[in-house]
Specification:
By secondary structure, this protein is α+β, with helices and mostly antiparallel strands. The protein is 54% helix and 18% strand. It has a five-stranded antiparallel β-sheet, with helices on both faces. The protein has a five-stranded mixed β-sheet with strand order 11-13-14-16-15. The chain has a four-stranded antiparallel β-sheet with strand order 6-9-8-7, sandwiched between helices. Helix 10 runs antiparallel to helix 11, helix 13 crosses helix 14 and helix 16 runs antiparallel to helix 18.
Length: 637
């Protein structure tokens, strides 16, 4: 029997065989005295010891204490049957005190009493497998606990083989009731008869995915609208293993779409009726003109009156266009306010849960850390098992990294709070009365809301915002409406810069400058201020610049803009505040908007402005007020 315990150290030399030194595995020769006789360079690279250090110490001391007996037992079995190589696994200590997981392939040479071994480092492979198991477990927990979506799997024949809580909530079936049942149970009888399910599974199997929106039936017989996505699952050989199905209840969305369509139809009907009335009035005026032409004397006397009536009609038509534009914009802002209110409310509640418990979590951690320090003072020499676990979890790293982690969570919660507050400030005091506000605060809140469009995107550089703020006094104005003007102009600037970036990506380079927006403010004189918003985008042609403030005029494709933004901005600045809105631009040279408003508008300007208000203005103000109230209530929670 060979003696594997180290009696005396011995020296060795590197093998002269180049395959021995070039091997990616760790090769070694062990003597019966318990020392290495030969080692290739991979031992030094993996364990961190020098060649002399490895030769000078018994190799068994490198093995983890818990693995030494098993290693010796395996080698003893090798001496009993030297013709058959053996494989064994153990942990080997590195120079820095950590351990590597090694796989040994060992054989013995009885004549010269030497052991030959090929050793492979499996540390990274072992860690990867553990990480994969953890990832699969987290994914399984995620799917099982999702309640807003029904996520389940089907076999190739369309029978249910898995069921999550969301599926139970939406369809009404318990897991034990539905497993093994055909998914056609959720379809309407006429859809089953028409073979809709079979067609959906066939398309998913051919294309990899199928999506549709249709009615589904719950366990209690009730019907709901569902959005369903079916994805085919294939194994490595390309064989169909089944399908995953994700179902979402969209009944509320469908009802909202129907209500919106009804409102749109009603608006079109009212516009058509009003247009017919105006046509009748126009025809009546034409008849009157024809009759008056018969009598020259009467025509001369009524000429002034006729011109006045024509001008009034044109003013009425223009007011009708503005009223229609304001009404459409009001309805959109109202819907947007409800959407923002819902989203911000859903964000605000979990943030409050997190933020409210962070301080407690930090305090609990500090208490536990102090307790551990007291234990270390009382028991400075822990047991080997405790020390091993301390090394395993890297306790020192945890004590330094966890406060940083808690701090980063606080920063993230503060960031979300700032965004919600900016949404509130963006519409603050958006009612009929004026207020004294800081213009810079409104600009900053608008830029914060647009941050997602300004920052770096995939394949694009970020937009640089340069702020040159002057020393402005507080301004008596309609703050929410001015914020809307800033939003419209900044959005147009971002669109122009993105258009320039898209042309650069397509090879039609228009500028080598980095995309930039400059926002400047200054006091013009004792009663006027100016806000300048400039970009270095593609610019505006003269033919477009002439119609820039016309309602419903836009150069953007369908779905990208309605042409209401700049028209309403012009009304807010010029008619509502008695100011000026100017645009200076040339193709390829960028665009600059200049907003000039009085610091303290005189009473006469606002009295004249209020004379032109109508019931539609009241409806618009009421919609804007509801948006502001929703945002304010969210921010106060």
């Amino acid at each position: 029997m060979l003696n594997f315990l180290p009696p005396t150290p011995s020296t060795g030399s590197q093998a002269s065989d180049p395959f021995f030194t070039l091997s990616l595995d760790m090769l070694c020769v062990l003597g019966e005295d318990g020392h290495f006789k030969q080692l290739n360079p991979r031992w030094e690279e993996i364990l961190g010891f020098t060649h002399q250090e490895l030769l000078a110490q018994p190799w068994l001391e490198l093995i983890h204490p818990h693995d030494q007996q098993l290693t010796l037992a395996k080698l003893e079995s090798l001496t009993r049957n030297p013709t058959a190589p053996i494989c064994l696994k153990n942990r080997c200590r590195c120079a820095n005190g950590s351990y590597k997981s090694l796989l040994w392939n060992v054989s013995i040479h009885p004549e010269n009493k030497l052991i030959y071994a090929v050793v492979r480092d499996q540390t990274e492979c072992k860690q990867s497998k553990e990480a994969l198991r953890d990832s699969e477990e987290r994914f399984r927990c995620l799917v099982e606990n999702v309640k807003d979506y029904a996520i389940y799997m089907l076999d190739p024949e369309g029978r249910v083989i898995s069921w999550n809580q969301g599926a139970e909530r939406i369809n009404g079936y318990q897991e034990e009731e539905i497993l093994g049942e055909p998914v056609s149970r959720f379809y309407l009888p006429e859809d089953v008869k028409a073979g809709k399910l079979e067609q959906a599974l066939k398309i998913a199997a051919e294309n990899g995915r199928f999506e549709d929106e249709s009615y589904r039936v719950r366990k209690d017989g009730s019907i709901f609208w569902a959005n369903a996505v079916i994805t085919a699952l294939y194994d490595k050989k390309g064989q169909l293993r089944g399908f995953t199905k994700v179902v979402r209840d969209i009944t509320e969305r469908k009802l909202a779409q129907e209500a919106l369509q009804n409102a749109h139809d009603d608006l079109e009907r009212r516009v058509a009726e009003r247009t017919a009335e105006l046509l009748q009035v126009n025809q009546r005026l034409r008849r009157e003109i024809k009759e008056r032409k018969q009598v020259e004397h009467q025509r001369r006397r009524s000429q002034a009156q006729l011109e006045q009536q024509t001008q009034q009609l044109q003013d009425a038509l223009q007011k009708l266009k503005h009223t229609q534009a304001q009404l459409v914009h009001s309805e959109k802002m109202s819907s947007l306010g409800q959407l923002v209110a819902g989203v911000a409310h859903e964000i605000n509640n979990p943030v409050n849960f997190i933020y409210g418990n962070l301080n407690y979590a930090e305090q609990y951690f500090q208490d536990i850390l102090e307790l551990v320090e007291l234990y270390q003072e009382s028991f400075p020499k822990p047991s080997a098992k405790v020390q091993e676990y301390i090394d395993l979890i890297d306790f020192n790293f945890i004590t330094t990294d966890l406060p940083k982690l808690l701090h980063s969570m606080k920063v993230g919660a503060d960031r979300i709070y700032q965004i919600v507050r900016s949404l509130r400030n963006f519409s603050h005091l958006d009612r009929a009365e004026k207020s004294v506000v800081d213009i810079h605060e409104g600009i900053d809140n608008t830029l914060l809301i647009l941050q997602s469009r300004i920052k770096v995107k995939a394949g694009r550089t970020s937009i640089t915002v340069v702020k040159n703020y002057g020393d402005l006094p507080l301004i008596d104005c309609y703050a929410g409406q001015l914020n809307q003007v800033f939003m419209n102009i900044l959005c147009n600037a971002i669109d122009a810069l993105e258009e320039g970036l898209d042309k650069d990506l397509l090879g039609d380079r228009t500028s080598s400058k980095s995309p930039t927006i400059q926002v400047s403010t200054q006091v013009i004189n004792e009663n006027w201020i100016a806000i300048r918003i400039a970009d270095n985008g593609v610019g505006i042609p003269d033919c477009v610049k002439q119609r820039l403030f016309d309602p419903f005029f836009t150069t953007k494709p369908v779905g990208k803009g309605t042409g209401l933004g700049l028209s309403i901005s012009y009304q807010i600045v010029v008619e509502k505040h008695g100011g000026h809105l100017k645009c200076f631009s040339s193709p390829g040279q960028g665009t600059e908007f200049i907003i000039e408003i009085p610091i303290e508008p005189n009473l006469q300007q606002y009295c004249c402005s209020n004379l032109y208000q109508n019931p539609v203005d009241s409806k618009i103000r009421a919609s804007q007020s509801s948006i502001s109230d929703s945002l304010n209530s969210i921010a106060l929670k």
